[in-house]
Design goal:
The complex is a heterodimer.
Chain A lengths: L1 H28 L6 H18 L4 H24 L7 H23 L14 E3 L2 E3 L1 H23 L1 H11 L1 H6 L4 H26 L6 H16 L4 H18 L8 H15 L13
Antiparallel strand pairs in A: 1-2
Helix pairs in contact in A: 1-5, 1-8, 1-9, 1-10, 2-3, 2-4, 2-8, 2-9, 3-8, 5-6, 5-8, 6-8, 9-10, 9-11, 10-11
Chain B lengths: L1 H27 L7 H17 L4 H23 L4 H21 L1 H4 L5 E2 L14 H25 L1 H11 L1 H6 L4 H27 L1 E2 L6 H14 L4 H17 L3 H4 L5 H22 L11 H6 L4
The chains are: A mainly alpha, B mainly alpha.
Chain lengths: ~290, ~300
C-alpha cells in the first residue's frame, strides 16, 4: 500500500509539469494546446541528442535542451498560433493538432520508431522499510518540486508573474494598463517549453524515449489540468497528484494496461459533475 | 497499375466518407471530433466480428452504423454542454480507450491477432477476378448516397438549425430550440457515416487489427474538410479525391527515390499533412469549396 502511494505520487508528479504548462498556456491564450504531448516528446529527443549523441551529462543536456526547446516553442507560436489568435479556440485547437502531427513526424523521420534510453548510471533502488524508491523516482521528485517552486515564485512574486495573471484575468484591462500581451505570451511559451522538455526527460528516465511517449501522456495531462480547473495553473499540480494516485490505486482492481481507462472515467465523471474542476470555481459557459 | 489505381481509389472513397462525416460534425455543427478514428474503428470491428459470426455483411454493416451512431450520441452527451475543447478531449479519450479494450479483450475481439476472413458484401454479384472493382463501385455508391443525403440535409430546415447552433448557440436557445438535441443528433448522424466508413474498411481489407487504426485517419479527415471548405460537402469530396489520392499515391515514391524507406516516407507524408493543416487554416481559412446557401453567414460571421 505504501509502495502504491509512493508510485502514485511519482506518477502524479510526472503529470504535474505538462499539466502546469497546458493550463498556463490555456489561462493566458484561452486555447487548449493539443501539441503539449508532442512538445514533451520533442524536448525528450533534444535532450537525448545532447546526452547520448554529444555525450553531455544528463543535467547539462536537460538544461541545454530546455533552453533550446523553449525558443522553439516561441517559434512555433509565431509561425502557427499567432496568425490564428483572433480566430477563436476551435481553429487554434485544430491547428495545434496539425502542429502535433508535424512535430511527431519530424521525430519519426530523424530518429525512427525504436525506443531509446538516456545514458545514466544504473543504481540499486533505495529501501525505506517496505518501500522501494529508485533513483529515477528520486530525480523526478527533486526535479519536479524544484521546477514547481521556481514557477510558483515567478507567478507570485515577480513583475512577470503579475503581468501573466493580469492577462489571464482580463486581457483588455491588462492592455489598458500598458501590459504588452505579446510579450507575456512569449514568456508563457518559454516557460511552457522548458516545463514540457523537463517532463519529457523525466518520462524518458521513468520509461523510454520514443515517438509515442507524448501521445500516451496527452489524455492524462488534459485530465489533470481539467481536474485542477483548466484555467488555474497551480491547481493543475494538485489535479495531477490526485490523478496519479487514482491511477495507481486503481491497479488494485483493474489490470495495469487499463490505466488510461481509469483516466478517462475520472475525466467523464468530472465533466458530468464538476466541469469547473475539483479546485476551480464555477464559471459560466455559453 | 490498374490494380494499384483501384486499391487507391477504394481507400480514397472510404476516406471521403470519413471526411463527409467530419464535415457534418465539425464543418456544419462546429463540434470538434478528435477521436474520429475510434468511431471508425468501432464500425470496422462491429461489422467485421458480426460478419465472421456468419451474419450477412450488409446486415452487419447496418448494425455497425446503428451501434456507432448510438455511442457517438452518448459520447456527445457527456460534453456538448461544455465548450468545444472538452468535446475534443472526450472523443479522443474515448477513441484511445476503445483501442485499448480492443487490444486487450481478446475473447471478444481476438486482440492483437486481429479478425481475419471478413467476407465482403455482394461478392457473388461480380464475375471472377472483378471483386476489387465491384467493391470499388460499392464504395463509390456509398459516397454518392451519403453525399446526396448530406446535401439534402444541409438544405433542409434541420441543416439551417445545425449551422445556427454552430454560429450562435445562444440565439438558437432563445428561439426555443434545444441546442443539446441538435448537437447530439449531429454527432449521431456523423457517427453512422463513420460506422459505414469503418465497415467498408473491414470488408475491403478482410482483416483488421488494432494497429490499422490511429490518429492518422482523423488527420486525413480534418485535412479533407479544411481543404474542401468547412460545410461544403462538394468541396470535401473533391479534396478527398485529389489530395488524399495524392497522399496515398505517394507510396509509389519508394520505388523512385533510393534510400527512402517506408517509415521515412510515411513520416514525410504526415509531416506535410500537419504543416498543411496549419498553413491552410492561416492562409485559406475557408478552404476551396463553399457552404451551400450561407454566403451571407460566411461574410458576417467572423468566428468561422
Amino acid at each position: 500500500m505504501g509502495q502504491l502511494l509512493v508510485n502514485g505520487i511519482v506518477a502524479g508528479l510526472l503529470l504535474a509539469l505538462p499539466a502546469l504548462a497546458l493550463s498556463l498556456t490555456f489561462s493566458v491564450l484561452r486555447f487548449a494546446n493539443y501539441a503539449v504531448g508532442s512538445y514533451l516528446s520533442c524536448g525528450a529527443y533534444l535532450v537525448y541528442i545532447g546526452n547520448v549523441v554529444l555525450g553531455m551529462p544528463l543535467w547539462l543536456a536537460a538544461s541545454a535542451g530546455a533552453a533550446l526547446f523553449a525558443v522553439i516553442a516561441v517559434g512555433i507560436d509565431w509561425l502557427a498560433y499567432r496568425p490564428l489568435r483572433d480566430r477563436g479556440g476551435v481553429t487554434l485547437l485544430v491547428a495545434s493538432m496539425g502542429v502535433a502531427i508535424a512535430l511527431e513526424n519530424v521525430i519519426r523521420f530523424f530518429a525512427g520508431n525504436l525506443p531509446r534510453a538516456y545514458n545514466v548510471p544504473v543504481a540499486r533502488p533505495m529501501r525505506f522499510g517496505d518501500i522501494r524508491l529508485n533513483h529515477e523516482q528520486l530525480t523526478i521528485l527533486v526535479a519536479v518540486f524544484a521546477a514547481l517552486a521556481v514557477v510558483w515564485i515567478i507567478f507570485r512574486f515577480t513583475r512577470l508573474g503579475r503581468m501573466m495573471r493580469a492577462v489571464a484575468d482580463n486581457p483588455d484591462l491588462a492592455a489598458v494598463r500598458g501590459i504588452s500581451r505579446s510579450r507575456v505570451v512569449a514568456y508563457v511559451w518559454l516557460i511552457a517549453g522548458m516545463l514540457t522538455t523537463l517532463s519529457g526527460v523525466l518520462v524518458g528516465l521513468d520509461a523510454n524515449v520514443e515517438p509515442q511517449m507524448g501521445w500516451t501522456y496527452l489524455l492524462p495531462v488534459f485530465t489533470a489540468a481539467i481536474l485542477g480547473g483548466i484555467a488555474n495553473p497551480m491547481a493543475a499540480v494538485a489535479g495531477a497528484l490526485t490523478l496519479g494516485l487514482a491511477e495507481e490505486l486503481a491497479t488494485l482492481v483493474m489490470p495495469v494496461h487499463y490505466r488510461m481507462i481509469v483516466t478517462f472515467l475520472v475525466m467523464v465523471a468530472l465533466l458530468l459533475v464538476r466541469p469547473w474542476g475539483l479546485f476551480g470555481t464555477r464559471w459560466v459557459t455559453k | 497499375m490498374t490494380v494499384y489505381l483501384i486499391a487507391t481509389l477504394t481507400l480514397v472513397a472510404i476516406a471521403a466518407l470519413a471526411g463527409l462525416a467530419l464535415n457534418l460534425q465539425w464543418g456544419m455543427g462546429g463540434l470538434v471530433n478528435f477521436g474520429l478514428f475510434g468511431f471508425y474503428m468501432l464500425g470496422a470491428y462491429i461489422a467485421g466480428l458480426l460478419t465472421v459470426q456468419g451474419l450477412p455483411p450488409l446486415v452487419a454493416l447496418g448494425v455497425a452504423m446503428l451501434g456507432v451512431a448510438a455511442l457517438s450520441a452518448l459520447s456527445a452527451l457527456i460534453s456538448v454542454r461544455l465548450s468545444e475543447d472538452y468535446l475534443a478531449i472526450v472523443t479522443l479519450g474515448f477513441a484511445e480507450c476503445l483501442r485499448l479494450v480492443i487490444s486487450y479483450e481478446g475473447w471478444l475481439t481476438r486482440g492483437m491477432l486481429g479478425v481475419s476472413g471478413i467476407e465482403r458484401p455482394l461478392q457473388a454479384w461480380w464475375p471472377r477476378g472483378w471483386g476489387d472493382t465491384g467493391f470499388l463501385l460499392l464504395a463509390l455508391l456509398a459516397v454518392l448516397i451519403v453525399y446526396t443525403v448530406l446535401q439534402a440535409l444541409a438544405r433542409s430546415p434541420f441543416g439551417r438549425l445545425v449551422r445556427a447552433t454552430r454560429d450562435d448557440p445562444g440565439v438558437v436557445e432563445a428561439l426555443g430550440k434545444s441546442v443539446l438535441g441538435v448537437r447530439v443528433r449531429v454527432f449521431a448522424i456523423g457517427g453512422a457515416i463513420l460506422g459505414l466508413a469503418g465497415s467498408l474498411h473491414a470488408f475491403y481489407y478482410s482483416y483488421i487489427d488494432p494497429t490499422q487504426f490511429g490518429p492518422i485517419i482523423t488527420a486525413y479527415a480534418f485535412m479533407a474538410v479544411v481543404v474542401g471548405g468547412r460545410g461544403s460537402n462538394r468541396g470535401v469530396v473533391a479534396s478527398a479525391f485529389t489530395l488524399i489520392f495524392l497522399l496515398e499515391g505517394s507510396r509509389f515514391l519508394i520505388d523512385l527515390v533510393p534510400g527512402l524507406g517506408a517509415s521515412e516516407l510515411a513520416a514525410i507524408r504526415l509531416f506535410l499533412v500537419g504543416v498543411g493543416l496549419v498553413a491552410l487554416l492561416i492562409f485559406k481559412p475557408d478552404g476551396f469549396g463553399r457552404e451551400p446557401r450561407s454566403a451571407l453567414a460566411d461574410k458576417t460571421s467572423s468566428r468561422f
